[in-house]
Amino acid sequence: MTDLPQTMLHAAATGAGGPDVIHIARGPLPQPKPDEVLIRVQAAGVNRPDVLQRQGLYPVPPSASPIMGLEVAGEVAAVGAAVTVWQLGDKVCALSNGGGYAEYCAAPEAQCLPWPAGYSAVQAAALPETYFTVWANVFMHGRLASGESLLVHGGTSGIGVTAIQLAVAFGATVYATAGSDAKAAACVALGAAGGINYRTADFLDDIKRLTGGRGVDVVLDMVGAPYTVRNLRCLAMDGRLVQIGLQQGAKVDGFDLGVVMMRRLVVTGSTMRPRTTAEKGVIAAQLRARVWPLLDAGRCAPVIHAVFPLAEAGAAQALMETSAHTGKIMLTVAA
Length: 335
Ligand SMILES: NC(=O)c1ccc[n+]([C@@H]2O[C@H](COP(=O)([O-])OP(=O)(O)OC[C@H]3O[C@@H](n4cnc5c(N)ncnc54)[C@H](OP(=O)(O)O)[C@@H]3O)[C@@H](O)[C@H]2O)c1
Prior knowledge:
Shape: globular
Number of domains: 2
Bound molecules: NADP nicotinamide-adenine-dinucleotide phosphate
Distance between the termini: 15 Å
CATH architecture of the largest domain: Alpha-Beta Complex
Low-confidence stretches: none
Mean pLDDT: 96
Structural class: alpha/beta
CATH class of the largest domain: Alpha Beta
Number of strands: 15
Radius of gyration: 20 Å
Strand content: 25-35%
Order of helices and strands: EEEHEEEEHHEHEHEHEHEHEHEHE
Largest sheet: 7 strands, mixed
């Protein structure tokens, strides 16, 4: 690490609050643990969990960097003593355990993947958070299979765009909800068979109509409590509800276990960040084998809505809070 600087710039937050608490600060470089690489960050993704962390609503796990940012792309600038896969200069994108809004970020080597063919740093950094989350939840927990159907709530979110694209690429029929007619149309443009404006239509009615009364095999939900009863009623026999967010609460009124029994439903869900490195490594290995070839071939690709310099991370998060975006909001970092 001899040619590395002693300090780096990063985006810090002065306590919990609005986007204006974010400012640029100087601090020490992260020291990679034996199984980690140090990445010279060129681009980082902005995700809803970053907003929650800034608001003081998402406690940082004890061993994770307190700096915001869960995904980066850049070049390997140093390797820990036990690293075997990556070498100095390799272009990687990584699901980090925090620390992405910075010039340098340490990440376990098992959570790194190569840049797909022809990708820029911004495109590569747009992949890890949504691809790890969608693969783990829709395909591993939700067991979505070719020929099945999926309802994605928040279809134009970073997560939603990836869920639509990946499910279609793997042969599923996808329906998606979003908060305007234009966003519902964007879901269809991404490959969904139906886009539902949840502000003007009841998604349960629409799903029943669109599926001829059968329902869908999997629902991916990030809304929570007010959707749960209708999500269960959207499901076909042996359907799976996968919960990945709780934007409108966790406590459900009117939950009817009888529906679960009669329709043999599975209710599951997960969070990504607290998983172990080994668990994230399993997801990374599956992504590399099953999904990276699709990205290399251009069969799916991240949708970049806006790019901000690191110094404007607050503006990037403010944009996310408006929900005006479709796809990813990104930061560029010049180390
Ligand atoms: N469990 C995990 O491992 C994990 C990992 C990453 C992210 N997440 C969660 O996944 C969600 C998306 O994350 P992101 O980073 O992609 O954020 P994002 O782009 O800001 O997405 C939030 C989305 O929620 C949608 N939404 C809000 N209310 C809705 C409603 N009533 N019905 C349908 N959609 C609604 C918004 O759509 P409209 O603007 O159209 O309303 C927006 O697209 C967040 O809840 C985040 O916490 C979970």
